[in-house]
Structures are given as C-alpha cells and as structure tokens.
Amino acid sequence: MTQPSGDPLERLNRLWAQLMGALARSGRRAEALAAYREVRVILGTELGIDPEVALPLIPTPATELRAATAAEFIDLLRTIHVRSGLTLPEIARRAGRVLPRSQIYSLLKRGKLPTKPEQVRAFVTICGLPESRVARVMELWATLREQTELVVSA
Fold first, then answer.
1. What is the pTM of this model?
2. Which of 54, 90, 110, 121 has its CA at a distance of 20 to 30 angstroms from the CA of residue 100?
3. Are 114 and 107 a contacting pair, CB within 8 Å?
C-alpha cells in the first residue's frame, strides 16, 4: 500500500470537507453541523490550531455557480450557506459590522437581489467559497444587477 502524498493536515481538511458536504447535500444538515462542530473541537483542543482559520473551503464546482434570475441567485446563496455548515448567527459573528444578522436573514429569505455587493462578498467568503468562486458569484450578482437596473429604467 502506498502512502498518500501531501500535507496530512490538508488531507484531513479535505476529508472533513467531503464528509460535511456529503451530509449537507443528502439533506442531513444536523449531522453536517455536528461534524463541523466536531472538527472545530479536534483542531482546537487536540492540535492547538485556531479552527476558524483552519477550516476547509467548501467544494463548489464552477458549473453550479449560475443564476439567470434574482430567485435563482437567492437559491445559489442558500445552497452555499447549507454547504458551509455554518449557522446564521455564526456567519453574523464572523462578519461583524459588514453583515449584520438581520441582513443575513434578508439575503436568504426575500425574493429580491441583494443591493450591497460587499455584503454578498462577505457572505460567500465567510461560508467558505474559494476566491475564484467568490469572484464568479460577484460576476453573477453584477450581471443580474445590471439587468434589474435596465428593466427599472425602461
């Protein structure tokens, strides 16, 4: 049997990310959150690593990052949120003043396109999207925002 290559901590992060993602995608959100909390404890107590920094990025294929309407964009934000394994209060705590808790709920509940790009960026970044995927979400937001402004001005 051959030994896997790469940093053991990175391999561990990938495995936890796969577990949490699989649980969330299969509708077992409570178990995904439990796995998230467990990895935080392991990283913090047993390895002495700040879990907020060491948590893995959530795997999101570029093909899933698409939205032609505001409703589809909101659904995309909801999917990103579920895959993150974070609760809305946890996201608000990490975001600080940039994204108040009430605004997070508003991002995910209402049917309108979010108006502040910095809040969208903060939300998807805190949820764990890699920077290239964050950039794609922001492109989608900008395109939909332009379309909305054209409809309003016409």
1. 0.62
2. 54
3. yes
